Amino acid sequence: TLGGLICLLKKEPSPRTLAGLALLAVLSCAAGMGGPRQIFILYLPLTLCAVAMFFIEHPHFFRDFRFHPASLSCRMLCMTVILLVCSAAGYLINSAVLSKLYTFAHFSDQVSFTDYAFAGLERSINGFLRAMGYTAGFRIFSKSGLVFNMIFAVFFLLTLCSVVWAWKRRPERETAESDWEYRFLTLFFLAAAVLLAGLFSFTTIPFDERYFVPLAVLFIPLAALFIKNLRGFRIRNYLLLLLVLCTVADMELFFRKNEGNEWAYRFNGYSAAELKDAAGVLSRTEYKKGYASFWDANVLTEFSDGAVEVWDYNSVPYDFDPDALYQWLQPKAHVEQKPEGPVFVLLTRYQTPDMIFKDPETLPVLFESERYIIVGFPNYDELKTRMLPREDSGE
Q: What is the pTM of this model?
């Protein structure tokens, strides 16, 4: 949406521009139908940015109420307001229509205004820094700590310089073709940062670092535009080379740091291949119903072409409770109905049958791979009987 909007603003108004705006409006409505997240991290900051651009271009608006309808800032304001309204309409569809067809958490029921909490600002700052690459937990003079955080320092300083440069640019120098893009991205970056920090400080919205990832990604175009507008051919090339090297090195170090953990395992595609094999094995047995965690349940059903029905249990932290089902992306009937007939349980390498079941050596192993093990039970009641007492249940 952001890139499409910039492309539309570069062109003069025409039927093709209107068609592009209509497409962005449809996308914004679809985004709003998925919930308010995109409204908070994209469409509302875009509108605030456009308002700021309008008053920068029309500094005496409140004195004479004069403006240029065909100006860039007016077109930008009109487009962003249209997108914001369409995304809000999508969220109304989410609340009024989709909520009656599906079960999901309602934002209005969970979030309310609260007294200002400094912890919200603190979490926002830390979330943004971590999204940019800051890594805590390393010793100051360790190799990993120095490399990770020196790369982060380069990203952070380039972003800071970019924002300050855009803020202090003199009017007589604002003639470059990319000037309005530079200022637009900078204002959007600041508006999104302030809005997110305000949400986490003045409301009960659950904190999630993922909200800051789209914001942190903007440091690359911001840094690139900052470098482009610097005087001096050599320093531009050196800084651009430094930015590219740091970006590539940071990606490589990230995957090395996470090598061997659950996320890296999934990204490398190993779990998908093993789940496909598991689905094939289960399809040839009498075990057509069972349990798996969120990241595996629906995938197992898809790989079996619907032959295997999987109840998605809430596996945090790597626990198993067939009665604690995940309230997301599974049929409503699973909440009320237990699987009938033979039942299987898919566990990952982070879980072992001896951690969960009594006499695990007597359980039939239906499938076993580097990552997974699937054990079977005659029925749901036998599954419950074989479970070890859970520490948090007081049994």
A: 0.70
